[in-house]
Write a structure and sequence with these properties.
The structure holds 2 protein chains of 2 kinds. By secondary structure, chain A is of the alpha/beta class. Chain A contains 9 helices and 10 strands. Helix content of chain A is 41%, strand content 25%. In chain A, the strands form 2 sheets. In chain A, strands 6-7-8-3-9-10 form a 6-stranded mixed beta sheet, sandwiched between helices. Chain A has a 4-stranded antiparallel beta sheet with strand order 2-1-4-5, covered by helices on one side. Chain A is globular, with a radius of gyration of 21 Å. Chain B is built from 13 helices and 14 strands. Classes of the chains: A alpha/beta, B alpha+beta.
Chain lengths: 256, 409
């Protein structure tokens, strides 16, 4: 059918159509996280500390990545940059195609709010605040209605198996339960990424297993991308990709 | 987007967590606002009393006193020389355009008897103009008339204190009393006026026609002599003109030469009282200003505590930033905390100020007036203090680096 082919050619010649198709292709091929030659230099007066010396990697949607390395290897610095908590000295960091270099302070806060859920080693829950209110916290900053906030927080607590503990304060919960509240908080805004910095560092082996199984389940069932920093091989074993840091560089990147 | 109700809830929660500290911080504002309200209440109470006295004295009042005598080198004091006459009073009313009414008075202290009761008080002879000059209404009966003055009838108007002492609960109008053993008929009772600016009981007085006083009770060094002439000017603005016109007229009538001193004195009582009122207003302002300093100190207390609170809660700020709090979310949280402290302190301070001014007036007998304006002002001011002194700590908190704040121990 030469006529149809002609029409297709005419359509492609239209610059607007061509540009839209290009943008569409870009979205399809875009990585969730894209780091290119990231450097981070801390300067204390005359002394310069090169924490990251040009790190490049990409992480796709749905991956389960463990970042390992000895202390001082730059893995935490890299995590902070991935979490938009810190800005790189050099290089490009894109999250869902957005270049974070161009973002203002409040725009970065918005990215953290909508795209990233944080889980910390020390849980970082607000004390004297009930579990459900801790989980509601991220939604205070994106303007959801009170009813919706409450429903979503309950849902998230249920997802981590804490529906009975809604009104307990952090000091009335065990370490594992506190970490699960933190995970519920990370889930509640339906962020595509969970960044976990030594999430089992303060937990015993049995509880660590429970938390890791929860991460595995979230990764499998909800397709949430999980990036965790750990120095324990047992913990890293739950992941499907391990990135090893040493002296501010990636020395090894293996997928299982 | 900022979620105001939640931010307010967060702020109140953290205030509740540190109850003792919040209460002590508020105390500064409570004392400040309370002091401002109480001080202004005391000050405006004083002003109000003076204003009330001015109006009880009669508005736009001038008093003409006779001159002094010297006997063997001993000067006898103001009013010792009888120089004023009925003729002077009539001339003032006739020839001074700034004068609305005059009341010549002549009298003394006399013993009153009614039935088996007796009482000693000041008896003043005057003309019907007196009641106009003094703005004095009747409680019962009638005033005496120009006809009564002309024919020197023996009629009397009583003040309330005199009625209380001579007649008790009985109606005195139509009854007869004896003044210095001369029988008089009571034709009216004057309305209660209370204390004079000098603290005298203005109701402890009897008024009779001036001619009756001259001829039947107190005598006169010369016919038609009066002791004091009261003058009401047409308006407050006309007071100075009236004073000048009266001065010129009396100098002329008393044949006083260019270089001679006046044999009379004109006193502008209203002006004196207005000056007093003015100075009490200045005092009010001063008291308020001093009390405001304590409000300022209270504000600094709020700032101090908020700065401590920001340092203490650095980690909390870090957590909030990590999960998406924006600059203004953090700022508002701390601002609202400061504002809540200062406004709650303001409300309690208002209650304290109002009740302490009630206590002051019952304990000391000073009148106090709590003006709604001072309440609004104190409340508004405490709000401004909260915002002003809360902003810096809030600003400081909002500029923290999230990663540093999270790592803060």
């Amino acid at each position: 059918m030469p006529q149809a082919k002609k029409r297709q050619q005419r359509l492609l010649a239209d610059p607007l159509v061509a540009e839209s198709l290009f943008a569409f292709k870009l979205v399809l091929t875009m990585s969730l996280i894209e780091a290119q030659d990231i450097t981070k230099i801390y300067s204390f007066g005359d002394v310069e500390l090169r924490a990251l010396g040009g790190v490049s990697t990409t992480i796709e949607k749905g991956e389960f990545v463990a970042i390992m390395g000895p202390s001082g290897s730059g893995k935490s610095t890299f995590m902070n940059i991935l979490g938009c908590l810190d800005k790189p000295t050099g290089g490009v960091y894109r999250i869902e195609g957005i270049d974070t270099k161009d973002l203002a302070r409040d725009e970065l806060a918005e990215v953290r709010n909508s795209k990233i859920g944080f889980v910390f080693q020390g849980f970082n829950l607000l004390s004297r605040t009930s579990a459900i209110e801790n989980v509601e916290l991220p939604m205070l900053y994106n303007g959801l209605a009170a009813k919706e906030r409450h429903d979503r927080a309950r849902e998230a607590l249920k997802a981590v198996g804490l529906e009975q503990r809604e009104h307990n304060h952090p000091n009335q919960l065990s370490g594992g339960q506190q970490q699960r509240v933190a995970i519920a908080r990370a889930l509640v805004n339906r962020a595509p990424i969970i960044l976990a910095d030594e999430p089992t560092g303060n937990l015993d082996t049995k509880t660590s297993e429970e938390i890791m199984n929860l991460f595995v389940r979230l990764n499998n069932e909800s397709g949430i991308t999980i990036i965790l920093v750990t120095h324990e091989p047992d913990i890293a074993a739950y992941s499907r990709r391990i990135i090893r840091f040493k002296d501010g560089h990636i020395v090894n990147d293996e997928k299982k | 987007m900022i979620n105001l109700p939640s931010t307010i809830r967060i702020a109140f929660r953290s205030l509740r967590v540190n109850k003792m500290r919040s209460a002590l911080t508020m105390l500064g504002i409570i004392i400040g606002v309370g002091a401002v309200i109480a001080m202004i209440a005391v000050g405006s109470g004083a002003s109000a009393r003076i204003a009330e006295q001015i109006s009880s004295m009669g508005s736009n009042l001038l008093i003409i006193l006779p001159g002094t005598t010297t006997a063997g080198g001993v000067r006898m004091g103001m009013g010792s020389q009888p120089t004023l006459s009925m003729g002077d009073a009539e001339a003032i009313l006739r020839e001074c355009p700034a004068v609305e009414a005059v009341a010549p008075t002549h009298g003394g202290v006399a013993q009153l008897v009614a039935g088996h009761m007796n009482w000693s008080t000041g008896v003043t002879g005057t003309t019907p103009g007196f009641f106009l000059v003094r703005d004095w209404q009747l409680a019962a009966g009638r005033y005496f008339t120009d006809q009564d003055v002309k024919s020197a009838t023996k009629v009397a108007l009583l003040g309330q204190t005199v009625v209380d002492n001579l007649f008790g609960d009985q109606n005195p109008v139509g009854q007869s009393i004896r003044i210095k053993n001369v029988p008089f008929q009571v034709i009216g009772v004057l309305e209660r006026k209370g204390q004079s600016p000098q603290g005298q009981d203005q109701d402890d007085a009897v008024y009779i026609p001036v001619t009756t006083a001259q001829k039947k009770l107190f005598g006169a060094q010369f016919p038609g002599m009066v002791r004091i002439i009261l003058v009401k000017a047409r308006s407050t603005d006309a007071l100075n003109a009236a004073e000048r016109q009266i001065g010129d007229l009396l100098r002329q009538r008393h044949h006083i030469g260019q270089k001679q001193d006046n044999d009379f004195t004109v006193r502008n009582l209203t002006q004196i009282m207005q000056t007093a009122e003015q100075s009490s207003k200045v005092m009010t302002l001063l008291l308020g200003a001093i009390a405001s300093v304590s409000l300022l100190v209270g504000g600094i207390g709020i700032m101090n505590i908020m700065l401590v609170s920001v340092t203490e809660r650095t980690r909390e700020i870090g957590i909030r930033m990590a999960i998406g709090a924006k600059t203004w979310d953090i700022r508002l949280q701390f601002l609202i905390e400061a504002l809540a402290l200062s406004l709650m302190g303001g409300v309690i301070g208002i209650i304290l100020g109002v009740s302490s001014s009630v206590v002051i007036s019952t304990m000391s007998g000073w009148p106090t007036v709590v003006s709604p304006l001072s309440i609004v002002l104190a409340f508004g001011f405490s709000g401004v203090v909260g915002i002003f002194f809360g902003f810096y700590p809030a600003y400081k908190a909002s500029l923290l680096n999230p990663i540093d704040a999270l790592r803060y121990e």
